[in-house]
Amino acid sequence: MIPLAARPEVAMSTPPERTELLYTGKAKQVFATTDPDLLWIHFTDGATAFNGVKRATITDKGRINAQISAGLFERVEAAGVATHLVQAIGPADHLVHRLEIIPVEVVVRNIAAGSLSKRLAIPEGTALPRPLVEFFYKSDELNDPLITDDQALLFGWARAWELAYLRDAALRVNDLLCGFWDGLDITLVDFKLEFGRALGRGRGGQILLADEITPDGSRLWEKGTLRKLDKDVFRRDLGDLGDTYRELFERVFGEAAGR
Length: 259
Ligand SMILES: Nc1ncnc2c1ncn2[C@@H]1O[C@H](COP(=O)(O)OP(=O)(O)O)[C@@H](O)[C@H]1O
Ligand SMILES: [Mg+2]
Description:
Layout: E1 18-24, E2 28-33, E3 38-43, E4 46-49, E5 54-57, H1 61-78, E6 85-90, E7 93-97, E8 99-101, E9 104-111, H2 114-120, E10 127-137, E11 146-147, H3 149-154, H4 160-182, E12 186-198, E13 207-210, E14 218-222, H5 232-235, H6 241-253
Antiparallel strand pairs: 1-2, 2-3, 3-7, 4-5, 6-7, 8-12, 9-10, 9-12, 10-11, 12-13, 12-14
Magnesium ion binds near residues 25, 26 and 27.
């Protein structure tokens, strides 16, 4: 697999300007823009784990995550799954379609790890016979609990056709990402996706893949050594997360993460 090409950003004819700060999350800031249908997402250097209990600032993390995520979104879009990305508009910034986020986080697992291993006592590293899709309710207060399809329907978090689309799109993204990371000698263990409903003009009515695809929300294990190249390095104090992410960037883009 050829690494993603680091290439200059394509300029929009008249890119909208960033206006007021709408939301400060754990790893990103969301701004309004002069275009009511578009948002400006700035990836910060903030790292959190255990729902914000553990916090740190990791130099370069915002830029690295923004650039990896943009590259992967472009591939996903090219493979036929629509995403919210309009364009990478700065070194750590995405211009995106404004969505109503569906409060159902979609996790795809290829190998048992993390909460699945804990919940069901499946030893970490156990290969799953096929990819497993899990839904979690997006709620910081509740620590993003695992939910059933029926709960999502009954409480109105998503419609039946939306859950079907989420599952199907997530599996297609998994196929693509498994191939991409495999080509870099990295195993995609699991990852989390968010989706949203496009309300504005252009892509109105569509469900788009939103948020990010980054090593913050994925488990990536180096083949052979099983060395972790993702946020578990921070969660479990396994080394320097900045160094890990710079190494990952170099593998993805074939060049160092320059300033
Ligand atoms: N296209 C979009 N439209 C609206 N909201 C979005 C879009 N993409 C991502 N978001 C939301 O923006 C926030 C990004 O900030 P983040 O630091 O990840 O927040 P959080 O702490 O909630 O995970 C998330 O809550 C995410 O759901
Ligand atoms: Mg988030």
